[in-house]
Specification:
- With 247 residues, the chain is an all-alpha fold.
- The chain has two domains: 1-42; 101-247, Pectate Lyase C-like (3 Solenoid), CATH 2.160.20.
- The protein has helices at residues 2-15, 20-41, 45-55, 61-77, 82-96, 115-125.
- Helix 3 runs antiparallel to helix 4.
- It is elongated, with a radius of gyration of 26 Å.
- The termini are far apart.
- Mean pLDDT is 85; it is low at 1-17 and 33-40.
């Protein structure tokens, strides 16, 4: 398009060699037109955000992966859209990976989340939390994230109420202050995870690897810890009232 404009300017020079006033007006107009072309070819971040939010989840998984990647780039380059994008991605996860009641779950713990769901979770987990606004909470409650890879994820203060994280990799994840009430973490890896002050009331923690995990002042009221590994775990100040351990 730009080359067409340049060629057109040369043609106009030849056609109107003596009319300098008209030529100068034309050359003043060309940069303005080039800018309009640029805007059309390269949408603004706001336009990209609108298009991405409309396309996410409405096409193929490959398309969703491309959209998720674009959203992460926008969040990185334009901090003013950071939380909007995180909210879009968390809504996408809740909508496309809804909680399944335990009695209806027939697959084993090796189940893996859908590729685009994992991609969205990866972006959420590695976001710059310093850009999160105050008084806002990441909401991944009532979701099915069995087998998700959340290694070193920053999920501090996240609402994970009744989330299914069975078999998930949460190694070295930051879950300080997270709400995990009634969540299913059976067989999950929480090695060296930070769960300080987390609420795990009535959670299924069977066979969870808590080796070296920080559970300082965490609430495990009514939680099930049958077969859990607690080697070197920090449990000082934790609420273990009516917690169920295996013999």
């Amino acid at each position: 398009m730009v080359s067409v404009i340049i060629n057109a300017s040369h043609i106009m020079k030849n056609i109107l060699p003596k009319n300098h006033i008209q030529i100068s007006k034309i050359f003043l107009w060309i940069p303005m037109f080039q800018e309009q072309v640029k805007k059309t070819q390269y949408p603004s971040p706001k336009q990209r955000l609108r298009i991405a939010s409309e396309q996410l989840g409405n096409n193929t998984i490959e398309n969703s992966l491309a959209v998720i990647n674009d959203l992460e780039q926008i969040a990185h380059n334009h901090p003013q859209y950071h939380w909007i994008i995180i909210d879009i991605l968390s809504n996408f996860v809740r909508k496309n990976a809804p909680y399944i009641p335990q009695e209806k779950v027939t697959s084993n713990l090796s189940t893996k989340v859908r590729v685009d769901i994992q991609a969205a979770l990866t972006v959420i987990a590695r976001r710059d939390v310093n850009k999160d606004p105050e008084n806002e909470q990441l909401d991944l409650s009532f979701t099915d994230m069995r087998g998700a890879n959340l290694n070193r994820a920053n999920l501090q203060q996240t609402n994970l109420y009744q989330a299914n994280l069975a078999g998930a990799n949460l190694r070295e994840a930051n879950l300080a202050g997270a709400i995990l009430s009634a969540a299913n973490l059976e067989g999950a890896n929480l090695y060296l995870a930070n769960l300080e002050g987390a609420i795990l009331s009535a959670a299924n923690l069977e066979r969870v690897n808590f080796s070296g995990a920080n559970l300082h002042r965490a609430s495990l009221y009514l939680a099930r810890l049958d077969g859990a590994i607690l080697n070197d775990a920090i449990l000082d100040g934790a609420n273990l009232r009516e917690t169920k351990f295996s013999n």
